[in-house]
Amino acid sequence: MVKITYVHTDGTRETVDAVAGNSVMQTALANGIEGIVAECGGSCMCATCHVYVEPAQLALLPPPHPAEDEMLDTTAAERLPNSRLSCQITVTPELEGLVVYLPPRQI
Ligand code: FES
Q: Of all atoms in ligand 1, which is nearest to the CA of residue 36?
């Protein structure tokens, strides 16, 4: 199990156990984390699973592939340098302790 922390816009933090191989989006839905909509179910076609990755941990992730980069231009909340689509982040043991911040809106 890998610990992932989701930080809500009011600063509330929820830390959950993630299964390696699942996405950060799937982990959020499985644990009832509010603020991730994931309309397309993880197909990289909706951008409603937007998160801001803790800047100090960005280097742990591979860079977004072109399709994710394109969808990141359509997020409801502002795209920032640490914006990622949580459905495209696969949980690995190296991501132990990952912190992601939920955006103010997904739609
Ligand atoms: S769930 Fe639709 S882009 Fe991530």
A: 1
> Is the Cβ atom of 25 under 6 angstroms away from ligand 1?
yes
45 lines ligand 1 (CB under 6 A): yes
Q: Tell me the C-alpha to C-alpha distance, in Å, between residue 100 and each of 51, 91.
A: 6, 12
- Could you write out the three-class secondary structure of 46-96? CCCCEEEECHHHHHHCCCCCHHHHHHHCCCCCCCCCCEEEHHHCECCHHHC
Is the distance from the beta carbon of residue 72 to the nearest atom of ligand 1 less than 6 Å?
no
Determine the distance from the C-alpha atom of residue 5 to the mean position of all C-alpha atoms in its chain, rounded to a whole number: 10
CA distance 25 to 85: 8
Domains of the chain from N-terminus onward? 2-101 (3.10.20.30)
> What does DSSP assign to residue 44?
S
39-95 residue pLDDT tens = 999 999 999 999 999 999 999 999 999 999 999 999 999 999 999 999 999 999 999
Amino acid, res. 89: I
